[in-house]
Amino acid sequence: KNQVEQSPQSLIILEGKNCTLQCNYTVSPFSNLRWYKQDTGRGPVSLTIMTFSENTKSNGRYTATLDADTKQSSLHITASQLSDSASYICVPKGVGGGSQGNLIFGKGTKLSVKP
Amino acid sequence: GAGVSQSPSNKVTEKGKDVELRCDPISGHTALYWYRQSLGQGLEFLIYFQGNSAPDKSGLPSDRFSAERTGGSVSTLTIQRTQQEDSAVYLCASSAHSGSSYNEQFFGPGTRLTVL
Question: Has residue A64 got a pLDDT over 80?
Answer without folding.
Answer: yes
